Amino acid sequence: MVLDDLGSSLRGTLDKLRGKSRLSEEDVEDIVKEIQRSLLSADVDVSLVMDLSDSIKTRALEEEPPAGTPARDFVLRIVYEELVGLIGDSTDLPLEEQTILLAGLQGSGKTTSSAKMAWWFSTKGLRPAVIQTDTFRPGAYDQAKQMCARAEVDFYGDPDNDDPVDIARKGLEATSEADVHIVDTAGRHALEDDLIDEIEQIEALVDPDTSLLVLDAAIGQGAKDQAAQFDESIGIDGVVITKLDGTAKGGGALTAVDQTDSSIAFLGTGEEVEDVERFEPNGFISRLLGMGDLAQLAERVERAMDQTGAEDDDWNPEDMLSGQFTLVDMQKQMEAMNNMGPLDQVLDMIPGFGGGIKDQLPDDAMDVTQERMRTFEFIMDSMTDTEKEYPRAIGASQIERIARGSGTSEEAVRELLQQYKMMERTIKQFQGMGSEKEMQRMMKQMQQGGGGGGMGPFG
Hints:
Elements: H1 4-15, H2 25-41, H3 46-62, H4 71-87, E1 98-103, H5 110-123, E2 128-132, H6 140-151, E3 154-156, H7 164-174, E4 180-184, H8 193-206, E5 210-216, H9 223-234, E6 238-242, H10 251-259, E7 264-268, E8 276-278, H11 281-288, H12 294-311, H13 327-340, H14 343-348, H15 356-359, H16 365-381, H17 385-389, H18 396-406, H19 410-431, H20 436-449
Parallel strand pairs: 1-4, 1-5, 2-3, 2-4, 5-6, 6-7
Antiparallel strand pairs: 7-8
């Protein structure tokens, strides 16, 4: 994921302090230089890097660490707080009627982002509508229409009308019953005068409550000038960072936030309409530094379990905690895991699993894990309903038949059955935990223990 290199570099720098109880001035100088190098390598603007590193250096030398706090944890907290301060709060987007204008260059991901944002608002109980005003790019109308159909949200566009301002006017009228209007504007390869003039006319007509600049995570140093020009033209209230599932460095997007004195509204994390996150600075920086993000993890789990349950009316995930755990339950849990998104993103959200531990894994580790899950699905598809209900009764002859039917090995079938036994034991432990109140208390303890919930990993 983008910014992984920055996160890995920062974590490696901080790990040099392991075992130290006190910081020397030389330690601080070395750490600050490494942090500067990490940020510059991630395409963060030079002046921004210097301001940030100066703040970290000053605090590390002047502040007194809490009693018993290791040097690494003390500096980690300072870096975390300074990065959160750099990014600022999430863009204010109340769950109420509003109009949002999207701006950005061609290829930044505006059209995809408009559908993703509309989908996100729809999950919050609002009725969104996307208005496509891009008459410049061939295929913009068709792409927007298809994306909105997949997101199951209202859409307006007119491929036969070459006046974007007129399309915006008619779009607002045609979708007047919508709660949230998202107006997608045309991009260009550069900030030509006609693009600026067009977007200023649309902005004057739709009178948006919020104007968002959409930036490709690969924007690099060019983000500074681009953000400044859009901000001067229409005023930028927030930034949408797209293509965070790629390998770009991503620092330019952070620079744009500072340049426009705005904040980040959404993160695009994949190609599907569901691959969007409402930006929360505590969780984002916590993930970057390898401390997890329980709040975002909980949202993904709930969404995935709801989606998995909706696909099969006969299956309820809560039944696992009250009755017998079967291979059907295990199969549904695996489907839910797939619905949560790529495993590397999910691991980043789990305190103790992202960051340092993930850094030590081979590059193809996540692919291997996902391949293993697919193999398990093939095996379960070759089982009878009775075998799924009572997997402990599966014998040698059945294992041979299942392996042959699924095109896998007998060893893979045994591995699946062993995995089932481990999960069954875990579920039984949950069943013995008692009341729902006790479960809630444990979850609260987990969130306080680290990783992006509420106030962040430091309480």
